[in-house]
Amino acid sequence: MTFMTVTDVHIPPAQASGRTITPVILSGGTGTRLWPVSRASHPKQFWALTSERTMIGETLRRATGENFAPPIVVCNNEHRFLVAESLRESGCEDGRIILEPAARNTAAAIAAAALLAAREDPDTLLWIMAADASFRHPERLAAALEKGAQAARENYIVTFGIRPDAPETGYGYIRTGAPLHPDGGVMDAHRVACFVEKPDRLRATEMLKDGGYLWNAGMFMAPASLLLAELARHEPAVLECVRAALAHSQSDLTFRRLDAAAFLRCPSVSIDYAVMERTDRAVVIPADLGWSHVSNWNSLWELGDKDARGNVVAGDVVLEQSHNCYVRSEGMLTVVAGLTDVALVVTSDAVLAIHRDYAQDVSALVAQLKASRRPEADIHNRCYRPWGFYEGLIQGERFQVKRIVVYPGQKLSLQKHFHRAEHWVVVSGTAVVTRDDEKLLLQENESVYLPLGCMHRLENPGRIPLTLIEVQSGPYLGEDDIVRFEDTYGRQ
């Protein structure tokens, strides 16, 4: 797959009129329609699907730099280290991370970010966006943001509407109303006439012909103080619960952990319903950004660079007499012959084959897997941790084999197990192993045995990743058979 190049864009200075621009990135989705790559344990925003960077990495690239205040990312607890690593890779270690104890939709997430930002500057302009959107024309973003900032400084809540180029049924729509300034002023800004839920094909075709409808990109800009005032006016319960959750929040390493008891009382409601559909301060700015929510495999086929027969491929793929297919392999050789209009996605533990016209139905398949209690519905074979990752290789009765990779300078918790013993064999790199009162230095091709019940820890003191093979044996091999005594990352 040939990756699209994201052009560096210049955003107008954040403090051009005395108000900063604070990016707010919502990273709570799981992207089930992109299963089996996107799963709850490692959703689509943390995958490189549209370029060489992860989707959240591309988002941070657009939203960090001297022209912006440090971004605020709202995510769930499980993904906190993935988000922290994304910020680090983007050169944005000063970004703030808010941890939601449970999903409560976008109104609560945005309220938390607005309250946090308003502590420093109530008039900062919040630029709110999803972590997993794609832009084919990022070079046009600067002009759209400048228009949005002009309207937001006039105390409006701006939404950016994308000019549709197809009768898309997977997006909501915005009907444009009268110009905000008929005699000039903010160019292209219009009142919002109404929001339209995801339409069927016939209705979407009619709206495309009408020309007065835009895709709802879920991207907003507004003063923090105005957003909070409109939440207080239209959904006071959301604001009250989130305010209490932030007031009783705890600082955990680089994270702001919202109080669970208060946050769980919060109504689950979208920002569209909570504010945008009810406020009289909503305006929309049309934008030709080549935006896509990348909501399913057909979206990736539409975005991708196609060969002479209309195919988009990623990974180790060989095609023969196939047309208009999307084929992705996350490792193993995948050979396809004689297929048309198919999406085929291969991972280490699952394969999805679906006609592209049915790409929206993948979430229903995931629901079936969950109902059958299949772990593949939510969990990848490769599991990421703050210190690196591990992946299962072989599993049998009373044993399993894993590959463990520890990043340079990182270490696992000091721990023990009640039901299993372990053998570690170093494949590459250097390991420091704590085993009860011993400290062992292991090099390539050296091994250590960790008997059941011993206190142990693994560290990588080197400058290259440490890779080892772990063989577990015992009557119970579940990940919950672990007692931590000390952990660098604050895990229990």
TrEMBL record:
Residues 316-369 form the MannoseP isomerase/GMP-like beta-helix domain. Its EC number is 2.7.7.13. Keywords: GTP-binding, Isomerase, Nucleotide-binding, Nucleotidyltransferase, Transferase. GO terms for molecular function: GTP binding; isomerase activity; mannose-1-phosphate guanylyltransferase (GTP) activity. Residues 23-307 form the Nucleotidyl transferase domain. It comes from the Bacteria. InterPro entries: GMPP_N (IPR049577), Man1P_GuaTrfase/Man6P_Isoase (IPR006375), Man6P_isomerase-2_C (IPR001538), ManC/GMP-like_b-helix (IPR054566), Mannose-6P_isomerase_type2 (IPR051161), NTP_transferase_dom (IPR005835), Nucleotide-diphossugar_trans (IPR029044), RmlC-like_jellyroll (IPR014710). One of its GO terms (biological process) is polysaccharide biosynthetic process. It catalyses: alpha-D-mannose 1-phosphate + GTP + H(+) = GDP-alpha-D-mannose + diphosphate. Pfam families: ManC_GMP_beta-helix (PF22640), MannoseP_isomer (PF01050), NTP_transferase (PF00483). Residues 374-487 form the Mannose-6-phosphate isomerase type II C-terminal domain. It is an enzyme of class 2 (transferase). Belongs to the mannose-6-phosphate isomerase type 2 family. NCBIfam families: GMP_PMI. This is mannose-1-phosphate guanylyltransferase.
